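Materials and Methods. Structural model of Short-chain dehydrogenase. The 237-residue sequence of Short-chain dehydrogenase from Paraburkholderia aspalathi was retrieved and submitted for structure prediction as follows.
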Amino acid sequence: MDIRNATVFITGANRGLGLAFAREARRRGAAKVYAGMRNTSGFDEPGIVPVRIDVTDTASIAEAAKLAADTTLLINNAGIAALIDGPLAADVEAQSTRMFDTNYYGVVRVTQAFEQILAAQPHAAIINVLSDIVWLPRPYLTPYAASKAAAWSYTNQLRFHLHERGIQVLGLHVGFVDTDLTNGIDVPKASPEDVVRQTYDALAAGKSEVMADEGTAVLKSTLAAEIPGYITPPAGL
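The predicted structure was written out as tokens:
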């Protein structure tokens, strides 16, 4: 699916990767871009329509879907993360509940609300923002990793389910991206603009997945190895 003349709805689009998706969609000639966010106050981007949506609140999701009923491309980008002491930390259950509510159930809720809208379009697609953390052991991100692994599994089921309806589903896998979400984490980070360009190019090429940085591509390539990257990460990751 090409972005030109598409109507795009992006969750978590007030900043970071979501805002980069919105700006690049406009640059590529999207007919309309909806920027979903919990608080629209002060948002002022030329050609981008702010829409209030909280992916943990079904009422706000329903209102957003009603307002953006001409959507042809849904981008499930909204997400949260937090650092913990490890998989046995006292707060692992509480943090996991919080992460799943946004990073997994949020994707499910928004997709359910927009599915009929997309199914009515001659050309439609969904992009789910995932993470290389599903293959990379990082104990301090255990709840986040589990929620993204669930979102990856959901994306695979969704792609298969929607294939016959002509709705393209693209999973974006990427490592750390240089946004507010990764502030304070001292690791190499991908440019959000570069990640977005690769993702839209993959969508236009009809792909089902995109590995948007070298580290993620290396990790994915190890999955069939005798010792895959989720057991022993490759050097440098």
